[in-house]
């Protein structure tokens, strides 16, 4: 795979550009189990921001290695912060950038996705895991609580009982439990998981991009609103798409029994 960045000697994040506008971000702090220190989280946020401003990038894939996704926020850095430090922590803006990505994010998770690692995975739109994946919000074991959306996103993803159990005991769930609970959409062999994640990303990258963007927006907003408002948003987006070239191309291609050629307008 062509590594086109980074430009520093010991990069915490590796960036790979794949065909069809798929951008792969690999967390790279193996000795610290990819713990999300400020440098790593800041670089993820930076690359998500760049991807969102680049028309040629259509889908972002975030992964760790075949044995670990991320073991949470960097506890050593966290230990240095007092209340004021936490209150004005720049990490809040980093998380905000990732969560507001208009480009779809696919997370490929193997091994530990703990604390901030689980929260990072839940910032993705699609979660694909190796069967060795373990998800946990273990902050309670440190006398703290999830602070990057863990309580909220876990509740949406797995429901109240399991969200409470995971956050109040700190105990992990395995990939099978995560699939059953709805936290992830697929399980595969760890060594095949990235290939699978890239294949899903590639499929999305080949779709009409305005439709991709509006579908993502519609589903994301639905989590924060009531059904009637969500349905109105969906209807509005559906009408907008009716005025696009890609919509005409998609329908015409079906009638002519050929593959559509989308131009993103
Ligand atoms: N921060 C900093 N360093 C970490 C880390 C973390 N979250 N997790 C692991 N490491 C480091 C370890 O200190 C260790 O470093 P040394 O070799 O220098 O001692 C190295 O990574 C390997 O870790 P272990 O030897 O502990 O590996 P293990 O396989 O025995 O255990 C583990 C793996 C169960 C994940 C264990 O490392 C662990 O419990 N880590 C902490 C998990 C955690 O509590 N995460 C939540 C952090 S708080 C948070 O995330 C809050 C938030 O976002 C708002």
Quick structural summary:
The protein is α/β, with parallel strands linked by helices. It has twelve helices and eleven strands. The strands form two sheets. The chain has a seven-stranded mixed β-sheet with strand order 1-2-3-4-6-8-11, with helices on both faces. Strands 5-7-9-10 form a four-stranded mixed β-sheet.
Sequence-ordered SSE layout with sheet pairings:
Elements lengths: L2 E3 L7 E6 L3 E6 L10 H15 L6 E5 L4 E3 L4 H5 L3 H5 L3 H9 L5 E5 L2 E3 L1 H8 L2 E5 L3 E3 L13 H9 L1 H10 L3 E2 H7 L4 E3 L1 H16 L3 H14 L4 H16 L2 H11 L10
Parallel strand pairs: 3-4, 4-6, 5-7, 6-8, 7-9, 8-11
Antiparallel strand pairs: 1-2, 2-3, 9-10
The site of acetoacetyl-coenzyme A has 20 residues, from α2, β7 and α5.
Q: Determine the strand fraction and express it as a percent band.
A: 15-25%
- Biggest sheet, strands in spatial order? 1-2-3-4-6-8-11
Distance between the ends: 30 Å
Structural class: alpha/beta
| Silhouette | globular
Tell me the series of helices and strands, N- to C-terminal: EEEHEEHHHEEHEEHHEHEHHHH
How many DSSP E strands?
Answer: 11
The biggest beta sheet, please? 7 strands, mixed
How big is the Rg?
19 Å
Which distinct ligands sit in these coordinates? acetoacetyl-coenzyme A
Q: What is the share of helical residues? A: 40-55%
Q: What is the count of DSSP helices, taking H or I runs of 4+ residues?
A: 12
Oligomeric state as shown = single chain
Uncertain regions: pLDDT < 50 for 5+ in a row? none
| Overall residue-averaged pLDDT value | 95
């Amino acid at each position: 795979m062509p590594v086109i960045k980074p430009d520093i000697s010991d990069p915490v994040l590796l960036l790979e550009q794949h065909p069809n506008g798929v951008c792969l971000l690999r967390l790279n702090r193996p000795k610290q189990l990819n713990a999300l220190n400020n440098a790593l989280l800041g670089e993820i946020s930076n690359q998500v921001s760049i991807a969102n401003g680049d028309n040629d990038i259509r889908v972002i894939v975030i992964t760790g290695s075949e044995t670990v996704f991320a073991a949470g926020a960097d506890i050593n850095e966290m230990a240095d912060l007092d209340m004021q430090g936490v209150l004005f922590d720049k990490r809040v803006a980093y998380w905000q950038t990732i969560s507001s990505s208009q480009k779809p994010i696919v997370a490929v998770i193997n091994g530990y996705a703990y604390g901030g690692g689980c929260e990072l995975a839940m910032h993705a739109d699609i979660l694909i895991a190796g069967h060795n994946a373990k998800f946990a919000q273990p902050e309670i074991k440190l006398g703290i609580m999830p602070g990057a959306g863990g309580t909220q996103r876990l509740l949406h993803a797995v429901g109240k009982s399991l969200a409470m159990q995971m956050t109040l005991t700190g105990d992990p769930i395995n990939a099978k439990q995560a699939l059953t609970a709805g936290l992830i959409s697929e399980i595969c062999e760890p060594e095949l998981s990235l290939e699978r994640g890239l294949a899903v990303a590639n499929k999305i990258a080949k779709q009409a991009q305005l439709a991709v963007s509006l579908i993502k927006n519609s589903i994301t907003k639905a989590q924060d609103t009531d059904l009637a408002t969500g349905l109105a948003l969906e209807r509005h987006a559906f009408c907008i798409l009716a005025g696009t070239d890609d919509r005409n191309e998609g329908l015409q291609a079906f009638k002519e029994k050929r593959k559509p050629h989308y131009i993103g307008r």
